[in-house]
Amino acid sequence: MTPARTRLAPSPTGFIHIGTLRTALFDYFLAKQTGGEFILRIEDTDQTRLVAGALESLLRTFKKLGIEPDEGPRIDNENLIVEKGDCGPYVQSARLDIYKKYVDQLLKQKDAYHCFCSKERLEGMREQQRTTKQTPKYDRHCLNLSGEEVKARIEAGEQYVVRMKVPEGETIVDDVVRGSVKFQNADIDDQVILKSDGFPTYHLAVVIDDALMKITHVIRGEEWLPSTPKHIMLFKMLGFDVPVFAHVPLLLNADKTKLSKRQGDVAVEDYLNKGYLPEALLNFIGTLGFNPTGDREIYDFEELIAMFDLSKVKKSGAVMNLEKLDWMNNQYLKNMELKEIIEVARPFVSLDLDNDMIARALIIERDRINKLDELQEKLEPYVAEFQYDSSLLVWKKSTAQDAKLQLKQIKNFIEDLEDASFVNSEAIEREVRAYIVKNELDNGSVLWPLRVALSGQEKSSSPFELLWVFGKEKGIERISKAIEFLG
């Protein structure tokens, strides 16, 4: 298999969109599967949209996810400083001289031309096209200006842009996901490739960068498919090899509309900040629109790399099913070692997770949460002071007197248990249930007041789990407090 060179080329304009992460993963899977390279390139030619700190944030987020580019900008773990030495070839604003060289080549070949049209003229042209229901495109007003006139106008200080000259005929995009897609060149605009500020537009810069960086596969969202004919034209005009294109489907809300912030989170950082584990998020996003086997949902990262098949990515939009993400994150949480769960929980919990009791509570409650930001609320009752509600301690049609009696008897039984019975909640459950059977009691009359005595809540973990968390001494202490409360 020929090694693939793939790239992710985000703009540092804010947060990392979930869709960008999905593209990054497909890029990464293909590169690693083939023994190739995954490259990070920063596309910052639109200087008006740049957001301070966005690049550092992007790099920091990728680092949290464990996605390390083979080439491109890096970030220092401690100081979060972009290492400037690595950025030159991979940040577009540092490559203006390179783009200018290829613009000159296109002008010389007559594959591009200068355009001096004012903003007002262009707006008037577009309005007329809308009125007459024409395809919106530049009318080539400046196409046939003589070299002398162009030179004179430039020397006079007139502002200009450079446009590519779209050739006649048709352009076919052979797309791995969408198959062969045909475009009529007559419907394609003479795209601006060099702006009046001297910066190239995305369309020119992306072609030159992909060619010079020897990118073999361009994986991106389907919204870029209409631009691809322009890019193919530029590749050919400049004498470059055309890479393999794959336009992946959009991510959708549950109602099948385009994923947007109006209906929920779209930033990778938001999901991490809520306590979705990087492994779960990578598993979930990496299988949106592509499931390696179709018969299971949980895959480790190495499996996703080994099983990835770009040709099997679905054409239809992939739904961001948050219930599935919650379930998946819960599965990862359940299977973590105690030491691991304690470490990932620290940023989300203000309690002392090194305390043995809190650690045991964490083991119990992590099975009942979907994300880590739910842990604080789940753990607080284990350490909070509480007052009993007498009505809660009584099981259904039973009485306060019977509840008190049952608590006294179960307290005596627990006091006589060997410490070995407290090794886990299952061992405690076996002992307590054997006690209930032996004394011909019903479960509710014993277990309900016992659970409320231990938790002080209407809804809580089982009494067996609570006894294991609190331990014998503190468990007896809580039961005694409930007996005292019942008078």
Automatic annotation (TrEMBL):
Residues spanned by motif 'HIGH' region: 10-20
Q: Where in the cell is it found?
A: Cytoplasm
Q: Which InterPro entries match?
A: aa-tRNA-synth_I_cd-bd, aa-tRNA-synth_I_codon-bd_sub2, aa-tRNA-synth_I_CS, aa_tRNA-synth_I_cd-bd_sf, Glu-tRNA-ligase_bac/mito, Glu/Gln-tRNA-synth, Glu/Gln-tRNA-synth_Ib_cat-dom, GluQ/Sye
Pfam families linked? Anticodon_2, tRNA-synt_1c
Q: Which SUPFAM superfamilies does the UniProt record give?
A: An anticodon-binding domain of class I aminoacyl-tRNA synthetases (SSF48163), Nucleotidylyl transferase (SSF52374)
Q: Which residues form the Glutamyl/glutaminyl-tRNA synthetase class Ib catalytic domain?
A: 5-327
Motif 'KMSKS' region per record, residues: 258-262
Q: Which terms in the GO cellular component ontology are assigned?
A: cytoplasm
Q: Give the primary localization class.
A: cytoplasm
Catalysed transformations (reactions): tRNA(Glu) + L-glutamate + ATP = L-glutamyl-tRNA(Glu) + AMP + diphosphate
Q: Which EC numbers does the record give?
A: 6.1.1.17
Q: Indicate the segments forming the Aminoacyl-tRNA synthetase class I anticodon-binding domain, all copies.
A: 341-483
Keywords, A to Z, come to:
Aminoacyl-tRNA synthetase, ATP-binding, Cytoplasm, Ligase, Nucleotide-binding, Protein biosynthesis
Q: Which GO terms describe its biological process?
A: glutamyl-tRNA aminoacylation
Q: What one GO molecular function would you report for this record? A: glutamate-tRNA ligase activity
Say yes or no: keyword Secreted present. no
Tell me how this protein assembles: Monomer.
**Role, per record:** Catalyzes the attachment of glutamate to tRNA(Glu) in a two-step reaction: glutamate is first activated by ATP to form Glu-AMP and then transferred to the acceptor end of tRNA(Glu).
Q: Which family does it belong to?
A: Belongs to the class-I aminoacyl-tRNA synthetase family. Glutamate--tRNA ligase type 1 subfamily.
Q: What is this protein called?
A: Glutamate--tRNA ligase
